[in-house]
């Protein structure tokens, strides 16, 4: 039986891997690496650096592949994502069938933790129900960007006795536009449009970070009304320079009293 490990690799630093992740990586004979192309070659190199740091070269082989692009111009987000997932399912099925032999172990490296806003687990769940390429899989959790963000800002993720929510920039923008901004502390991921800049409450604090734990890490904190434009500018400059950016932030309202 083929075996696949979905390994959370943290936010780009080889030191982020847990011992469980390292052991799973060392047991794999085939490492599947996503190639984002010329726009972000650094993302592929980071994954290769992780393999070189933790593995013996003669004991594994690398298979590079390009993920299908999601239609970002579509007015129907869910339909676009569904079509994207179908394309990824077909690709991953072919990768496992053509490059992973019977009784071999393969590994896909997931940025951060594969359970947080990453579709690879949905892909594997769908593939595991098909009969065309029988395989079993396991999930190795990883250090995620939310943990790195609060660690680098040296703050707890929640206030005493208070809940937190995790959302995307798209959903945050929708809630602000509807006049119902989220209550309490909010951790925001995948915000390419800087939805935080639409926050009207002048007391809301933001703790923002990009390239967390990596060379070139950027951290900014303060009241949203004071630092929003600075974050937007830093984000734009960093993305233009490196060709990609991964960032996240926490929005926090001061407690009453």
The Rg value, from CA coordinates, equals: 20 Å
Give the neighbour order of strands across the main sheet: 3-2-4-1-5
Order of helices and strands: EHEHEHEHEHEHEEEHE
Q: Judging from the principal axes of the Cα atoms, what is the shape?
A: globular
From the 3D structure, determine the CATH topology of the largest domain: Cobalt-precorrin-4 Transmethylase, domain 1
From the coordinates shown, what is the CATH architecture of the largest domain? 3-Layer(aba) Sandwich
The amount of helix comes to: 25-40%
Describe the fold and architecture:
The chain is an alpha/beta fold and 257 residues long. It folds into two domains: 139 residues, Cobalt-precorrin-4 Transmethylase, domain 1 (3-Layer(aba) Sandwich), CATH 3.40.1010; 108 residues, 2-Layer Sandwich (Methyltransferase, Cobalt-precorrin-4 Transmethylase, Domain 2). The strands form two sheets. It has a five-stranded parallel β-sheet, with helices on both faces. Strands 6-7-10-8-9 form a five-stranded mixed β-sheet, with helices on both faces. α3 packs across α4. The chain is globular and about 60 Å long.
Question: How are the elements arranged and paired?
Answer:
Blueprint: E1 2-8, H1 19-26, E2 30-34, H2 41-54, E3 61-65, H3 77-99, E4 105-110, H4 120-128, E5 135-140, H5 145-153, E6 164-168, H6 169-177, E7 185-189, E8 205-210, E9 218-223, H7 224-242, E10 247-252
Helix pairs in contact: 3-4
Describe this protein with a few key phrases.
2 domains, globular, 257 residues, Cobalt-precorrin-4 Transmethylase, domain 1, alpha/beta, Methyltransferase, Cobalt-precorrin-4 Transmethylase, Domain 2, five-stranded mixed beta sheet, 10 strands, five-stranded parallel beta sheet
């Amino acid at each position: 039986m083929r075996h696949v490990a979905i390994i959370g690799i943290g936010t780009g630093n080889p030191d982020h891997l847990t011992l469980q992740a390292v052991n799973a990586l060392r047991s794999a004979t085939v490492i599947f690496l996503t190639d984002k192309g010329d726009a972000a070659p650094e993302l592929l190199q980071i994954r290769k650096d992780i393999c070189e740091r933790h593995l013996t070269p003669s004991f594994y082989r690398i298979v590079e592949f390009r993920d299908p692009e999601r239609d970002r111009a579509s007015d129907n987000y869910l339909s676009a994502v569904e079509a994207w997932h179908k394309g990824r399912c077909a690709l991953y099925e072919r990768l496992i069938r053509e490059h992973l032999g019977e009784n071999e172990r393969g590994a896909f490296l997931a940025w951060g933790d594969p359970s947080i806003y990453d579709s690879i687990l949905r892909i594997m769940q769908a593939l595991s129900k098909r009969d065309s390429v029988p395989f079993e899989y396991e999930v190795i959790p990883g250090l995620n960007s939310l943990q790195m963000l609060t660690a680098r800002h040296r703050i707890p993720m929640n206030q005493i006795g208070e809940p937190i929510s995790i959302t995307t920039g798209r959903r945050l923008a929708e809630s602000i536009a509807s006049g119902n901004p989220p209550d309490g502390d909010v951790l925001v991921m995948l915000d390419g449009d800087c939805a935080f800049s639409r926050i009207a409450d002048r007391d809301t604090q933001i703790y923002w970070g990009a390239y967390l734990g990596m060379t070139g890490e950027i951290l900014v904190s303060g009241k949203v009304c004071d630092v929003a434009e600075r974050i937007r500018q830093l984000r734009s400059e960093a993305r233009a320079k490196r060709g990609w950016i991964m960032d996240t932030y926490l929005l926090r309202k001061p407690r009453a009293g």
